[in-house]
Amino acid sequence: MKTPQQLQALIDDGVIEEVLRPLKSGKEAAVYVVRSGGEVRCAKVYKDMAQRSFQQRVQYQEGRKVRGSREARAIGKASKYGRKQQEVAWKNTEVDALYQLREAGVRVPEPFGYFHGVLVMELVTDAEGFSAARLGEVELSAEQARQFHAVLVEQVKLMLCCGLIHGDLSAYNVLVGPDGPVVIDFPQVVSAGGNNAARTMLLRDVNNLTANLGRWAPELLETWYGEEMWELFQAGDLSPDTVLTGEFTPDESAVDLDSVRHAINDAREEALIRQQGREAAAEEEGY
Question: Residue of 144, 160, 209, 230 with fewest CB within 10 Å of its CB?
């Protein structure tokens, strides 16, 4: 295959030895299987976003720290320079999150460096050594679904303890490795303490996973892990050692419980529709 221009720069610098094959391509990045350091890894090449996409990401950007006051002012004005700096910050966000989360023990791919706008990281494989399938592409037993749900809720909790929320977590941002689920794709990661939509995004992340795995183990649909986590987080009582129960009692004097239930069910139905759409799109693209 013809070596992409962005990866040729890494070959010239000796970061990677060769590009083996494309792995997947999406709206924000293309991922390639490469040989680096004598090992098979993957390289994520970020694409430049169009103005439309830039505007759509405003809700994720709230609360993020920007390196330098000049850059922060330019981003705030949405000038040409500001948009360029926002793109740089957007690409750096995933790199920073991966290093932080890996250090905290979250099940994410190991990063090996960020070079010329390309993230080189661990290639997650299955038990046979092939590229791991996404969670939304595999069939599970009820017991497997319960186990995966427990593991993923634990990862969401550990992320929240780091002050981060994935922001777009679903069965298509989770790979199934030989030792269980691995969470991927963090360019939209959200600041739990600095974003007004943090709670909504956390609940959406958990509901997306629950909706998918609840197809195999319906009892999961009756759990409230997102609500439980957020309440503990707000109270300053959430820690990596916190044992979650999935139980949550809303303040019925302040909350319309039926409305909360309907909202959660709507979110789960929406998640299933999104998953079906992604499945259809993946089939059309041939991966």
Answer: 144
Whole-angstrom distance, CA of residue 17 vs CA of residue 40: 10
List the beta strands (DSSP E) in the chain: 18-25, 29-36, 39-46, 111-115, 118-122, 164-165, 174-177, 180-183, 190-191
- The residues, ordered by sequence, that sit 6+ positions from 120 with a Cβ below 8 Å of its Cβ are 10, 15, 16, 34, 36, 41, 42, 43, 44, 111, 112, 113, 114
Residues 6+ apart with CB under 8 A from 38: 17
For 233-256, the pLDDT digits (tens) are 999 999 999 999 999 987 666 555
Q: Which amino acid is at 132?
A: A
Whether the pTM exceeds 0.85: the reply is no
CA distances from 90 to 73, 174, 206, 207 (A): 16, 21, 23, 25
Q: Which of 61, 88, 102, 107 is nearest to 201 (CA)?
A: 61
Closest to 273 in 3D by CA, of 207, 189, 179: 207
Q: What is the DSSP code string of 138-170?
A: S---HHHHHHHHHHHHHHHHHHHHTTEE-SS-S
Decide: 155 and 229 in contact? Cβ < 8 Å. Answer: no
Angle between helices 69-77 and 80-103 (to 10 degrees): 120
